[in-house]
Amino acid sequence: MIHEVDDVIERLLKKGALAGSGIDVSFEAPTRDWAARRNTTAVNAYLYDIREDVRRRHRGSTPVEDGRGIVLKRRQPPRWFRLSYLVTAWTKQPKDEHRLLSAVLAALLPRELIPPDELPSALSALGLSMPLTVAGLQTEARSMAEIWSALGGELKPSLDLVVTAPFPAYPEYDVGPPVTEGAAVRVRAVDGGAEDSPERRHRPRQVARAAAARAAARGLPGEHGPDATAAGHPDPERAQK
């Protein structure tokens, strides 16, 4: 999931702020050694924090349906995680870095919500949009100065980019087939005989309605007549009563 969020960020930057510029997007830690090895203009998006957004946690399960609306499986709802990136520009002149950061900010500000059709396959399969915030208030315990100190570098202008991404919860589990028949009741005599006790079947109302809908779709009359089907009774005599 994390590497797919990296791909989303890289695509947003290369199609927006960096379109046609040939500027590279790096996800390495911007340490002193990395800065010394760098010999081209670059935008760095360093992932420095991963935390679950517990406010988005849900209990229970969600159904997985086929094209006909039949539930095939159930799965746990996804867990949401906040991925925090430190976005910096690396050029030879500070003013050029500021211009590059301004272009990055202009490209990311309108993208507050990334729709599923713009996400990679695993994220897109969940059918959920992915929130994105840039240059927001710091809510984590650590400050930017502490992060730069841990990296061993000097403080630079940066944008704090936070992507809240869903992470699929496992496992999925199968469910039983849909109910198509009702319960059967047979009454026996005291001695256990069953000669004079014909079996009676009762179909739940929703099953009878589903059968009537299927018959109507095929242009056929109800299985036991419209009145009996609407009442949920398979026996026309009972329906008339």
From TrEMBL:
Domain Pvc16 N-terminal residue range list: 4-181
Pfam families: Pvc16_N
Superkingdom, natural source: Bacteria
Region of interest (Disordered), residue spans: 191-241
UniProt feature, compositional bias: Low complexity: 207-218
Name of this chain's protein: Pvc16 N-terminal domain-containing protein
